[in-house]
Amino acid sequence: MAEVRLTGVSKSFGKTVAIRDVDLAVADGEFVVLLGPTGAGKTTTLRTVAGLERPETGTVHIGGKDVTRSAPAERDVAFVFQQYSLYPHLTVFENMAFPLRSPARRVPEDRITERVGQVAEMLRIDHKLANKATRLSGGEMQRVAIGRALVRDPSIFLMDEPLSSLDAKLRAGLRVELKRIQYELGATILYVTHDQIEAMTLATRVGVLNQGRLVQIGTPKQIYEDPDDIYVAGRLGSPRINLVPAGVIAVPAPPGTATVGLRTEHVEIGRDGTPATIDRIEHLGDQSRAHMTVAGTPFTVLVDAHTDLAPGDSVGLSPRAPLFFDAAGTRIRA
Amino acid sequence: MSAEAHSVVAPSTGWRRFAAVVVIAYALAMLVPLGWIFITGFKSPNDAIAYPPKVFFEPSLEGYVNVFTTRTRQSQEYMDSLPPPETWYDELVRSRNMVIAGPSRFGQRFMNSLIVGFGATFLTVFLGTLAAYAFSRFKVPLKDDLLFFILSTRMMPPIAVAIPIFLMYRTLGLNDTHLGLILLYTAVNLSLAVWLLKGFMDEIPREYEEAALIDGYTRLQAFRKVVLPQAMTGIAATAIFCLIFSWNEYAFALLLTSGQAQTAPPFIPTIIGEGGLDWPAVAAGATLFMIPVLVFTVLLRKHLLRGITFGAVRK
Description:
The complex is a heterodimer. Chain A is α+β, with helices and mostly antiparallel strands. Chain A is built from 9 helices and 19 strands. Chain A has a 6-stranded mixed sheet, sandwiched between helices. Chain A has a 5-stranded antiparallel sheet with strand order 13-17-14-15-16, with no helix packed on it. A 4-stranded antiparallel sheet of chain A has the order 2-1-4-5, with helices on one face. In chain A, a hairpin with a 2-residue loop joins β1 and β2 (16-26). Chain B has a two-stranded antiparallel ribbon. Chain B is globular and about 85 Å long. Chain B is mainly alpha-helical. Among the domains of chain B are: 3-40; 107-270, MetI-like fold (Orthogonal Bundle), CATH 1.10.3720.
């Protein structure tokens, strides 16, 4: 395991800028999750670390060594792809042994058998080793893909949305396993996702990417509670944070505030405060959501599961912990 | 009414019967000439040219004996002076008042066909696979123009350039050589091979190679270990198309070869018997000639269906 550092890395494809001036350091043993929508540059960042893309500017250091111009094989990284991750003409065992059998590595065959066995056991796929890789369920395939990375002891694991092609239940299960593996191995992982639950639960630190820029990086708590700008604030939280123009909700705002952000759990419904009328109530079982319109803007508030609020009710909204943003979307810290 | 009767996708019984009749009629139209060649090989020369044609006849191996031997007619005294025939084919030939003078050139021509056919197929598939991989994966300058140029070599019938090629080959000393025919068939087939194989290569996701690169393999090792096994279907289908063309090619083989490197197609029709073509021998030669392609196709058949319907089904 080793530290990985990107400095001022930019990459474009034709006229499209994929990533722009990204600085990112992943410390030894850290689990960094890059979060962002499609096209934000997450995958490009990962591929640049892997050596599958060569950056136009900037440098990539792995374990203190400049690898910007090195071939993927020389970088000692392991990559878990989103899909197509298994070689379809090989068995599960052969797939997992593939990196160890590379001519550059020359691992003795008995050592390979031993190592693949260990990893397969850890991932609970040891009974499938003789199967063709294509004769597996989605969850098993993805575990084999992760296993193929784990048989090695690379400087860093790069994972490109490894769970996104799975159904919700499998995803939750593998997420827990992944965290356990990382904890047990003390592995350094750079992980890409657009799923905020994965980001929040797995990461030591979360980096939010938007249009090729690394907008903010910090612990999941920092990113959620103390976002640097309006994009990061909107990126995390479900239902989404309420963003209303300044003055609509009665809160003391610092000068220059253009938008006020209110998390759905940070608004209390009572008699006093900004008046609103409830449009709709969604019952989700463990919680309910009250949808309303405040000064023409849709507004959502998290309420008790057994709320007796009903559409048409007139209520008052009292916010707490509001976030203020200026016209450019930058956070104004009080 | 049954549910089936309402189905909008399942064809009605009438349509199915009609389709079956069309398919069977088509299959018969294709198979009857082959069947006729096959049975003609087992006829006697007289039965072969009998009119009206004989469907029932006494089978004979004369055609097969004749295709492999040269024979001379002898006087009755000479025949009587010979010791009794040692083999069944000696006996068969002597019943026609002839003796076997030696082997024919059919075996040699057949071997030439094998060398040229499989040689050209191997070379075409080898070059085609590398070219298709490069076109599929790398940034090649003027890629589209190059691909069009490659295809355009097939837009004219090859025989249109027969005379220039004949003159070139004569100058270069490639006339009547295996290498000459192999190169020619490779040149003709290569455009088809590149285009077919590029389609197959395009369908193999790049992630596999990228994974192999990260797993510690070089580009060439990744190509061999990951791309080639997955391209086998396409390679097999392409190989069959190439072999069928080079195996059956007649015009250039006739023009460019005579003594040494002549392949079977121009040779078979020249099998002359007494008083015209020896039809049973020609038919026997043609039947034997079909076997290698048949075997090759059967061996690769599991790849073939997927290969021929390539592009028809989007996954």
